[in-house]
Specification:
The chain has 161 residues and is an alpha+beta fold. Helices cover 29% and strands 22% of the residues. It has a 6-stranded mixed β-sheet. It is globular and about 40 Å long.
Length: 161
Amino acid sequence: DQWEKSAGRVRSLARKETMSGKTIVHTDKAPAAVGPYSQAVAVNGMLYLSGQIPLDPATGAMVGGDDVAQQTEQVMKNIQAVLESQNLTFDSIVKTTVLITDMDHFGAVNEVYAKYFTSDPPARACFAVKTLPKNALVEIESIAVYPNSAEPPAKRPNAAL
């Protein structure tokens, strides 16, 4: 079917591009991608995390109902899972982009977000958008930097994963 052909093409491209210096990052502790993209890509000492929405990694179900604070909490847990898969923390994040469906949610999202960035928060942009995948109320994408190395842990000798 069409999805199988598309997914096969994406896997093929990922393998090819991985040979050119980028590493596709995946962890079962964060939700699987809901389309033809990767959870994260590591290249040149940076980790680019795809936008996370409030999906439960075990079930794929949305978390939080209409409560944007609960949704944001799940989004942050999903980001944390991807970071931890690379031995990184929220302190490694240098930039985020926050997408919300209503600017009235800005305060509630900020309150949860601030719990994860307790000092030296990253640069950030926040945009109100019409809709998000699966009708989520919030989505956050991130960019992190690997400390003292241009290589992700999978490429460093003796790196623990």
